[in-house]
Amino acid sequence: MSKSAAVPRGRRRITVPIFGIFARQKSHKSNHHPGGREHIIITPERIRKWKSISKEKASETRRSPFTSYRVKKSSKSSRKSTAKEAAVVDARERVLHDFVASIRASREEIADEVSNALYTAEGNLVKRLSRAAANYHDKLNNSSAPDSVTTSSTQSAHPPTVTGNNTSLDDARRTLEVQEKALERHWKNWVKIQGKIICLGVEVLGTDKLSLDETTAAAATGGGGFGRRFRNAVSGFDGHVSMEREVEKAAEEERDAIVQMARDAVKQSVTQEK
Description:
mainly alpha; rod-shaped; 5 helices
């Protein structure tokens, strides 16, 4: 039998050696080592594959320190952020505390200034009224001198002086009436201003720090103008007190919220450190 076979004409002749076929089958069967280990045939494709695998492992080993550094850096940045948050919370709490303290100090200063102003105004009005009363008495005494003269002259034995004395008496009476009207006007203004001072004091200081006599207390509870102003002053003081309480309540709530935020920030920083 010949080692090659003939093909029809018109095609290229292919020679297939028998040794080559059996050699490939034998080599395929002998890939396994008798001890159980497999023989690896080194080819260019396998070499390229091994190089790519080694490059990937090298890149992973180079990347791992940076990733751990990033984690550490992020933890440090989180600590800094929590510290900044705690500092901001402390600053807000200090500002709120200073605001409440300034409100209380301003209220006390305003009350003192109003008390001093009311005391000064009352003293000035008393001085003015005293001067007006003194002037009135002086003029009254001066006008009483001609009356004594006219009385003695009318009782004397000289009747011709009666007409002149009657004229001076009429002038004195008219002067006295003018002074009486002026004094009454001053007294009315005094009572009105005194009522305004009392109402202003009640509106600013309240009724606890106010002492009234029986007449003024009766007028305050009455239905006149002073009574209406007094009740409006009391309602105004109550409105100021309620508003101040609301502001203090809101400030306390804000303070509690800030304290809670600070505690939450501290807890969050502790958990991040763990």
